[in-house]
Amino acid sequence: MRANARHSEHADAVLLRSVDFGEADRIVTLLTSRHGKVSLLARSARRSKRRFGGALEPFSLLDVELSFGHGELGVLHAASVTRAFPVLLRDLARMTAAGAALELVREVMPERTPDPSVFACTIAMFDALSQEALATAPLALAFRAHVMGLAGFAPRLSACGVCGKRPARGQAAELDPARGFVVCRACGGAAHRLSGAMRELLICALEEQWLPAQDRVYAKDEIDAAARALHVFIEQRLDRQVRTTAGA
Ligand SMILES: [Zn+2]
Q1: What is the pLDDT at residue 50?
Q2: Is residue 247, in this structure, part of any structural domain at all?
Q3: Ligand 1 center from residue 221 Cα (angstroms)
Q4: What is the pLDDT of residues 150-194, one digit of tens each?
Protein backbone atom coordinates (compact mmCIF):
# COMPACT_ATOMS: atom_id res chain seq x y z
CA MET A 1 0.00 0.00 0.00
CA ARG A 2 2.83 2.37 0.74
CA ALA A 3 3.99 2.12 -2.88
CA ASN A 4 1.17 4.47 -3.70
CA ALA A 5 2.50 7.00 -1.26
CA ARG A 6 5.46 7.71 -3.57
CA HIS A 7 5.52 11.21 -4.98
CA SER A 8 2.72 12.34 -2.77
CA GLU A 9 2.18 16.07 -2.72
CA HIS A 10 0.06 18.66 -0.97
CA ALA A 11 -2.62 20.77 -2.60
CA ASP A 12 -5.40 23.13 -1.62
CA ALA A 13 -8.72 21.45 -2.28
CA VAL A 14 -12.48 21.60 -1.94
CA LEU A 15 -14.58 18.46 -1.61
CA LEU A 16 -17.03 18.10 -4.49
CA ARG A 17 -18.38 14.65 -3.70
CA SER A 18 -17.73 11.71 -1.41
CA VAL A 19 -19.09 8.21 -1.98
CA ASP A 20 -18.66 5.26 0.37
CA PHE A 21 -16.72 2.42 -1.19
CA GLY A 22 -16.23 -1.09 0.16
CA GLU A 23 -16.01 -1.68 3.89
CA ALA A 24 -14.31 1.48 5.05
CA ASP A 25 -13.05 3.41 2.02
CA ARG A 26 -14.37 6.40 0.20
CA ILE A 27 -14.03 7.64 -3.32
CA VAL A 28 -13.81 11.41 -3.22
CA THR A 29 -13.98 13.97 -5.97
CA LEU A 30 -11.98 17.09 -5.16
CA LEU A 31 -11.45 20.38 -6.88
CA THR A 32 -7.77 21.09 -6.33
CA SER A 33 -5.76 24.19 -7.02
CA ARG A 34 -3.00 22.28 -8.80
CA HIS A 35 -4.74 19.51 -10.72
CA GLY A 36 -8.29 20.74 -11.21
CA LYS A 37 -10.98 18.12 -10.57
CA VAL A 38 -9.60 14.78 -9.42
CA SER A 39 -11.10 11.48 -8.25
CA LEU A 40 -9.23 9.79 -5.42
CA LEU A 41 -9.47 6.69 -3.30
CA ALA A 42 -9.36 7.51 0.42
CA ARG A 43 -8.49 4.23 2.11
CA SER A 44 -10.10 3.64 5.49
CA ALA A 45 -11.54 7.13 5.32
CA ARG A 46 -14.54 6.07 7.36
CA ARG A 47 -12.25 4.79 10.13
CA SER A 48 -9.17 6.95 10.19
CA LYS A 49 -9.83 10.07 12.24
CA ARG A 50 -6.11 10.71 12.31
CA ARG A 51 -5.63 11.05 8.56
CA PHE A 52 -8.94 12.60 7.63
CA GLY A 53 -10.53 14.00 10.79
CA GLY A 54 -13.73 15.74 9.80
CA ALA A 55 -12.11 17.01 6.62
CA LEU A 56 -14.16 14.98 4.17
CA GLU A 57 -17.21 17.15 4.65
CA PRO A 58 -18.11 19.78 2.06
CA PHE A 59 -17.80 23.56 2.32
CA SER A 60 -14.26 23.90 3.69
CA LEU A 61 -10.87 24.77 2.28
CA LEU A 62 -8.72 21.67 2.71
CA ASP A 63 -5.06 20.84 2.65
CA VAL A 64 -4.78 17.40 1.07
CA GLU A 65 -1.94 14.98 0.47
CA LEU A 66 -2.47 13.04 -2.72
CA SER A 67 -0.68 11.00 -5.34
CA PHE A 68 -1.39 9.63 -8.77
CA GLY A 69 -0.46 6.23 -10.11
CA HIS A 70 -1.19 4.69 -13.46
CA GLY A 71 -4.94 4.35 -13.11
CA GLU A 72 -7.77 6.81 -13.36
CA LEU A 73 -8.09 7.00 -9.63
CA GLY A 74 -5.46 8.75 -7.52
CA VAL A 75 -4.94 8.20 -3.81
CA LEU A 76 -5.89 10.60 -1.06
CA HIS A 77 -3.48 10.01 1.82
CA ALA A 78 -4.61 12.68 4.25
CA ALA A 79 -6.79 15.75 4.49
CA SER A 80 -7.24 18.53 7.00
CA VAL A 81 -9.36 21.65 7.15
CA THR A 82 -7.36 24.83 6.71
CA ARG A 83 -10.32 27.15 6.60
CA ALA A 84 -13.92 26.62 7.69
CA PHE A 85 -16.91 28.76 6.79
CA PRO A 86 -19.15 28.48 9.87
CA VAL A 87 -21.68 31.15 8.86
CA LEU A 88 -22.36 29.23 5.66
CA LEU A 89 -23.10 26.08 7.66
CA ARG A 90 -25.63 27.81 9.88
CA ASP A 91 -28.06 28.75 7.14
CA LEU A 92 -29.94 26.30 4.93
CA ALA A 93 -30.32 28.69 1.97
CA ARG A 94 -26.57 29.37 2.00
CA MET A 95 -25.72 25.69 2.26
CA THR A 96 -28.10 24.89 -0.59
CA ALA A 97 -26.49 27.59 -2.73
CA ALA A 98 -23.01 26.30 -1.89
CA GLY A 99 -24.09 22.72 -2.66
CA ALA A 100 -25.50 23.74 -6.03
CA ALA A 101 -22.32 25.70 -6.76
CA LEU A 102 -20.18 22.64 -6.08
CA GLU A 103 -22.44 20.47 -8.18
CA LEU A 104 -22.11 22.85 -11.12
CA VAL A 105 -18.32 22.88 -10.75
CA ARG A 106 -18.30 19.09 -10.65
CA GLU A 107 -20.47 18.88 -13.77
CA VAL A 108 -18.67 21.46 -15.81
CA MET A 109 -15.01 20.80 -15.02
CA PRO A 110 -13.12 18.09 -16.92
CA GLU A 111 -10.92 15.70 -14.89
CA ARG A 112 -7.34 16.73 -14.15
CA THR A 113 -7.49 20.02 -15.99
CA PRO A 114 -6.11 22.70 -13.70
CA ASP A 115 -8.06 25.93 -13.67
CA PRO A 116 -6.95 28.31 -10.89
CA SER A 117 -9.80 30.71 -11.75
CA VAL A 118 -12.47 28.12 -11.02
CA PHE A 119 -10.78 27.20 -7.75
CA ALA A 120 -10.44 30.86 -6.73
CA CYS A 121 -14.03 31.70 -7.54
CA THR A 122 -15.29 28.66 -5.60
CA ILE A 123 -13.46 29.89 -2.50
CA ALA A 124 -14.72 33.43 -3.19
CA MET A 125 -18.24 31.98 -3.30
CA PHE A 126 -17.78 30.32 0.12
CA ASP A 127 -16.41 33.60 1.41
CA ALA A 128 -19.32 35.62 0.09
CA LEU A 129 -21.85 33.10 1.43
CA SER A 130 -20.23 33.59 4.84
CA GLN A 131 -21.12 37.27 4.87
CA GLU A 132 -24.53 37.58 6.40
CA ALA A 133 -25.13 40.95 4.73
CA LEU A 134 -24.89 39.45 1.24
CA ALA A 135 -28.11 38.19 -0.36
CA THR A 136 -27.80 34.58 -1.44
CA ALA A 137 -29.90 34.48 -4.64
CA PRO A 138 -28.03 37.11 -6.70
CA LEU A 139 -24.75 35.61 -5.54
CA ALA A 140 -25.79 32.11 -6.63
CA LEU A 141 -26.88 33.47 -10.00
CA ALA A 142 -23.65 35.39 -10.56
CA PHE A 143 -21.54 32.39 -9.57
CA ARG A 144 -23.31 30.08 -12.01
CA ALA A 145 -22.93 32.53 -14.88
CA HIS A 146 -19.27 33.11 -14.02
CA VAL A 147 -18.41 29.41 -13.86
CA MET A 148 -20.17 28.80 -17.16
CA GLY A 149 -18.11 31.61 -18.64
CA LEU A 150 -14.87 30.15 -17.28
CA ALA A 151 -15.84 26.79 -18.75
CA GLY A 152 -16.25 28.39 -22.16
CA PHE A 153 -20.03 28.52 -22.17
CA ALA A 154 -20.73 32.22 -21.60
CA PRO A 155 -24.23 33.25 -22.69
CA ARG A 156 -24.16 36.23 -25.05
CA LEU A 157 -26.14 38.97 -23.37
CA SER A 158 -24.72 42.21 -24.77
CA ALA A 159 -26.17 42.08 -28.26
CA CYS A 160 -28.96 40.34 -30.17
CA GLY A 161 -27.47 37.09 -31.45
CA VAL A 162 -29.41 37.40 -34.72
CA CYS A 163 -28.98 41.03 -35.86
CA GLY A 164 -26.25 42.25 -33.51
CA LYS A 165 -28.26 45.19 -32.18
CA ARG A 166 -27.07 46.13 -28.70
CA PRO A 167 -29.68 46.97 -26.08
CA ALA A 168 -28.81 49.97 -23.93
CA ARG A 169 -27.03 49.24 -20.66
CA GLY A 170 -29.54 48.20 -18.02
CA GLN A 171 -32.24 47.45 -20.59
CA ALA A 172 -34.26 44.24 -20.38
CA ALA A 173 -33.79 41.55 -23.03
CA GLU A 174 -35.06 38.10 -23.92
CA LEU A 175 -32.77 35.08 -23.69
CA ASP A 176 -33.00 32.04 -25.92
CA PRO A 177 -31.32 29.41 -23.71
CA ALA A 178 -30.99 26.86 -26.50
CA ARG A 179 -29.12 29.27 -28.73
CA GLY A 180 -27.28 30.86 -25.83
CA PHE A 181 -27.96 34.50 -26.71
CA VAL A 182 -30.48 37.27 -26.34
CA VAL A 183 -32.84 37.96 -29.23
CA CYS A 184 -34.34 41.40 -29.82
CA ARG A 185 -38.07 41.93 -30.46
CA ALA A 186 -37.48 42.80 -34.12
CA CYS A 187 -35.86 39.37 -34.55
CA GLY A 188 -38.75 37.61 -32.85
CA GLY A 189 -37.71 37.76 -29.19
CA ALA A 190 -37.26 34.68 -26.99
CA ALA A 191 -38.98 32.84 -24.15
CA HIS A 192 -37.00 34.01 -21.12
CA ARG A 193 -37.14 37.66 -20.15
CA LEU A 194 -34.17 39.06 -18.28
CA SER A 195 -34.96 42.33 -16.51
CA GLY A 196 -32.54 45.18 -17.06
CA ALA A 197 -31.04 44.67 -13.59
CA MET A 198 -30.63 40.91 -14.11
CA ARG A 199 -29.11 41.31 -17.55
CA GLU A 200 -26.60 43.73 -16.08
CA LEU A 201 -25.84 41.42 -13.14
CA LEU A 202 -25.22 38.52 -15.53
CA ILE A 203 -23.05 40.58 -17.87
CA CYS A 204 -20.95 41.70 -14.87
CA ALA A 205 -20.83 38.09 -13.62
CA LEU A 206 -19.02 37.10 -16.82
CA GLU A 207 -16.21 39.53 -15.96
CA GLU A 208 -13.29 38.85 -13.65
CA GLN A 209 -14.94 40.87 -10.87
CA TRP A 210 -18.02 38.69 -10.92
CA LEU A 211 -19.39 39.22 -7.40
CA PRO A 212 -22.63 41.22 -7.41
CA ALA A 213 -22.62 44.65 -5.77
CA GLN A 214 -23.49 44.37 -2.09
CA ASP A 215 -25.72 47.43 -1.99
CA ARG A 216 -28.04 46.42 -4.83
CA VAL A 217 -31.45 45.02 -3.94
CA TYR A 218 -33.11 42.92 -6.61
CA ALA A 219 -36.79 42.03 -7.00
CA LYS A 220 -37.41 38.39 -6.18
CA ASP A 221 -39.51 37.71 -9.28
CA GLU A 222 -36.75 39.13 -11.48
CA ILE A 223 -34.12 36.95 -9.81
CA ASP A 224 -36.34 33.87 -10.07
CA ALA A 225 -36.97 34.48 -13.78
CA ALA A 226 -33.27 34.99 -14.46
CA ALA A 227 -32.38 31.89 -12.42
CA ARG A 228 -34.84 29.81 -14.46
CA ALA A 229 -33.45 31.17 -17.72
CA LEU A 230 -29.88 30.45 -16.67
CA HIS A 231 -30.85 27.02 -15.41
CA VAL A 232 -32.34 26.07 -18.78
CA PHE A 233 -29.26 27.51 -20.49
CA ILE A 234 -26.94 25.42 -18.29
CA GLU A 235 -28.95 22.25 -18.85
CA GLN A 236 -28.85 22.81 -22.59
CA ARG A 237 -25.10 23.37 -22.51
CA LEU A 238 -24.32 20.43 -20.24
CA ASP A 239 -27.05 18.30 -21.76
CA ARG A 240 -28.12 16.84 -18.44
CA GLN A 241 -30.05 17.65 -15.33
CA VAL A 242 -28.31 20.05 -12.96
CA ARG A 243 -29.75 21.06 -9.63
CA THR A 244 -31.26 24.52 -9.59
CA THR A 245 -30.88 27.15 -6.91
CA ALA A 246 -34.06 28.85 -8.07
CA GLY A 247 -37.13 28.44 -5.89
CA ALA A 248 -38.83 26.86 -8.88
ZN1 LIG B 1 -32.14 41.33 -33.39
Answers
A1: 84
A2: no
A3: 25
A4: 999 999 999 999 999 999 999 999 999 999 999 999 999 999 999
Using the mean position of ligand 1's atoms as its centre, give its distance from the Cα of residue 118 in Å: 33
Does residue 206 share a domain with residue 121?
yes
Rounded distance from Cα 163 to ligand 1 centre (Å): 4
The mean pLDDT value of the chain amounts to 91
Report the number of distinct structural domains present in the chain.
2
Per-residue pLDDT, 5: 46
Q: Do 58 and 121 have their domain in common?
A: no
Contacts of 214 (CB under 8 A, 6+ apart): 133, 134
- pTM of the entire predicted model: 0.91
Tell me, yes or no, whether 134 and 155 share the same domain.
yes
Q: Which residues are CB-neighbours of 122 under 8 A, at least 6 positions away? A: 14, 31, 101, 102, 105
If you measure from the C-alpha of residue 182 to the centroid of ligand 1, how many angstroms do you get, rounded to a whole number? 8
As a whole number, mean pLDDT of residues 98-102 equals: 95
Helix (H) or strand (E) holding 182: strand 181-182
Please give the distance, rounded to the nearest whole angstrom, from the Cα atom of residue 188 to the centre of ligand 1: 8
Residue span of the structural domain in which 177 resides: 87-238
- The CATH number given to whatever domain includes residue 28 is 2.40.50.140
| All residues at 6 or more sequence positions from 235 whose CB lies less than 8 Å from its CB, including other chains | 177, 241, 242
* Alpha-carbon separation of residue 106 from 41, 129, 198 (angstroms): 17, 19, 25
Give the model confidence (pLDDT) of 52-77 as tens digits.
888 888 899 999 999 998 888 999 99
Q: Which of 84, 104, 138 is the last residue of a domain?
A: 84
Question: Residue 72 has what pLDDT?
Answer: 84
Same domain, 98 and 59: no
